[in-house]
User: Which sequence fits this backbone?
């Protein structure tokens, strides 16, 4: 553990933020139109000391999703406030602070979408992912799970997947991480949070658009009816990859143009930028995992996402973001697709 003497006032980086909001949200699922069912915030000062904490349940106005993960049933959430009713209190705790989370892109995206639904903008301009910070510090973690980060710093988790306890654990693990970064002059991996304003009500009379992500086993009686939703504009389309698929990635060898690469989970670099880099290097960006997928890039290979599950089932090679970006520096040339470009 790092004591206060390791990062004194004289050595503390002047460019570091003045305060942080360590956040955890539990949700009905992982898709863009899923909802928050609980949220917690630990506000920290510039040195990572806890100022206060806040927690709330949120009525998602739909099936609560993976109850076997977060433990929040329809009955428990029935009397909880709607997100619009807690938006001001939440915003007060986020304002003028860097949002800190484990898999920060996910938490930020869920929060931003909820505010967009409510006709508001979340008061967050920057975020910091503790996975990315752990990599910057070269922490010897066996994987990128929160429990591994907590164990490294001797933090005891009491209620996994309870928003308040997950936020507490992360706050206690973030403090020594922040101080180690300050001591060693590490630049914090801060990313811009761009406001999301593309939410609109569903034109199908409240019908749900999209699909429910797979969580593996669904308990008996799990409902497939989710009520009213909005939808998001589709992602921009890229031109077809001009190279044939050379097959699966072989560990220890370079990437080859034409390889089909899928991405899953949070990344320290904005996902779209990372995909652009891969496309520019001659790789095919796959939206899903199939037997033809050459490689899955994820920082959490043991996650419950459908892509990670399919990769395990198909035996698709998996790399984390750091290893993948290293390989992007020297991608082997591929051939040209004969005739019309393959989609």
Assistant:
């Amino acid at each position: 553990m790092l004591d206060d003497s390791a990062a004194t006032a004289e050595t503390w980086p002047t460019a570091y933020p003045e305060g942080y909001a360590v956040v955890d949200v539990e949700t009905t699922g992982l898709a863009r139109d899923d909802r928050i069912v609980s949220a917690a915030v630990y506000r920290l000062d510039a040195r990572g000391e806890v100022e206060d904490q806040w927690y709330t349940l949120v009525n998602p106005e739909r099936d609560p999703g993976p109850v076997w993960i977060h433990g929040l049933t329809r009955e428990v959430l029935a009397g909880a406030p709607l997100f619009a009713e807690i938006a001001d209190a939440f915003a007060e705790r986020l304002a003028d602070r860097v949002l800190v989370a484990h898999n920060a892109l996910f938490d930020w995206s869920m929060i931003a979408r909820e505010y967009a639904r409510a006709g508001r903008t979340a008061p967050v301009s920057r975020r910091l992912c503790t996975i990315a910070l752990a990599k910057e510090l070269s922490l010897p973690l066996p994987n990128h799970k929160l429990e591994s980060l907590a164990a490294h710093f001797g933090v005891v988790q009491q209620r996994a997947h309870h928003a308040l306890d997950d936020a507490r654990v992360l706050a206690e693990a973030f403090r020594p991480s922040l101080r180690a970064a300050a001591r060693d002059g590490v630049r914090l991996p801060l990313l811009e949070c761009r406001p999301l304003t593309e939410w609109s009500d569903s034109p199908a009379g409240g019908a749900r658009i999209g699909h429910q992500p797979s969580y593996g086993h669904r308990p008996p009686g799990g409902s497939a009816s989710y009520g009213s939703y909005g939808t998001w504009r589709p992602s921009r389309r890229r031109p077809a990859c001009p190279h044939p698929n050379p097959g699966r990635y072989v560990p220890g060898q370079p990437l080859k143009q034409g390889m089909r690469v899928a991405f899953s989970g949070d990344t320290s670099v904005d996902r779209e930028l990372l995909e652009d880099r891969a496309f520019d290097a001659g790789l095919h960006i796959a939206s899903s995992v199939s037997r033809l997928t050459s490689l899955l890039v994820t920082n959490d290979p043991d996650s419950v996402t459908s892509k990670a599950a399919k990769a395990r089932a198909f035996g698709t090679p998996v790399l984390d973001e750091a290893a993948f970006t290293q390989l992007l520096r020297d991608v082997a040339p591929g051939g040209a697709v004969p005739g019309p470009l393959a989609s």
User: Anything to note?
Assistant: The CA atoms of residues 65 and 245 lie 37 Å apart. The chain has a mean pLDDT of 82.
